[in-house]
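Re: [help] complex structure
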Amino acid sequence: MTEQGTTSTALRESITAGLRQAVKRRFGAAADIDAVEFTSLGGSNRTVLFDLVDGTARRRLVFRQETIIPANSPFLDPARQFRVLSLLYPEGLPLPEPIFEFDDEDSLARAYVVAFVEGETVPRRLLDAPRYERARQRFCAQAGEFLGRLHALDPAPAAFLAEVPDSIDPLATTMARIDRWGGVHPALELAARWLERHRPTSTRRCLLHGDFRTGNMLLDEEGMRAVLDWECAHLGAPAEDLGWLCLRSFRFGHVDRPVGGFGPREPFYAAYASASGHPVDPEEVRWWEIFGFIRWAHYNVMQAYGHQTGARRSAAFAACGRNIALIEYELLMTLAGHYH
Amino acid sequence: MAHDTPDLAEILRTVHEFIRDLKPRLGGMDGYQALCAQMLLEIALRELPEWQPQETADDARLRALCEVGPEAPRETLAARLAARIAAGEFDARMDELADELLRHVIAKVRVSRPKHLEPEHRAD
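Output below.
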């Protein structure tokens, strides 16, 4: 998973120096870093693993830095990501412990450090490898419990997320971003119109993870260890988080297992209801799944736009543009009742 | 028919750039084959303007939905249709529109990744 070949030596040295400086500022001159590993995990974020060494103590940590700041970025900046983690970690939810945030006196900017958690994130391995069978059996209930506990928290301390566009109107925001990034998709327009005319009436508002799906959580053989990637956190209807996990696009070949490719909906919904005290309305979750297709398409529009405009040239981002039709197909098949 | 971005020329340019960046890391026969692949893509890019896009059944479908004739340029059809949908002009016949758009999307996926389609949608 290292990308030593593509990260230049000079860049690696400057990041290592910046990390060392930041660690010494906070943990004292005797503290140092060791076993630095540049990983390629994470799309527009730089991720570096390292050991914090202090006397005989040694702790594996993760440095996360925002490297690409696209115009009209749909993602939370690192400062607000760190704030979300700091808010939630004391609640005992499974997420990486926030360690420190970089500030103006550090040579590295837009970054923070969290504890390293051992485990697997790659969907295909989690869904197919025999060693994760037990974790797969537990997943639906654990995912329901996690979201139920998250959504049961008082959203007031997360009021700083109220200004995030996705906290205001996710549908309007997402369609506006597609407009801005270009590309015309009548099928997405149809879905948006359908969603507009069938808006759920529930009024409960919670702190949402915003990107809770297979690939963004870390599991080991025993089950869920940590929920990662909090850059889409916002306030909204709890069913949004449930629908996103069930989106057909994130089942990685296991389309008959709607909960992230792991299993059926019933244990997921039951665990959610029990942890949150609120029963799940499957029709509302379906509304958010239809929305989810638009949202997933919009990330692909964003990547294709980044490639097309020259901001981030890459064959992978170019391919995203032609991925949109596949999402539109799944959307229309779901809307017509052929897919569930 | 009108596909999403990247268009055909952009796809050729993207692969050309990828091979250009990869080539220095390849040696021997692989390096030589990469050079030839680059040259082939350059030929295709120069030849591309000679190819005239054909009016397809999907263009006709979009024209019918937009209620416009052949005078409307094909690259404007999707935008016209999207605007009409957003304005609510299809609200009374959403199911019919969804059915037509499924055919439109199937036409796109048949080019971008036909294996993603249900078997009954892979061919007429």
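Residues 1-6 of chain A have pLDDT under 50 and may be disordered.
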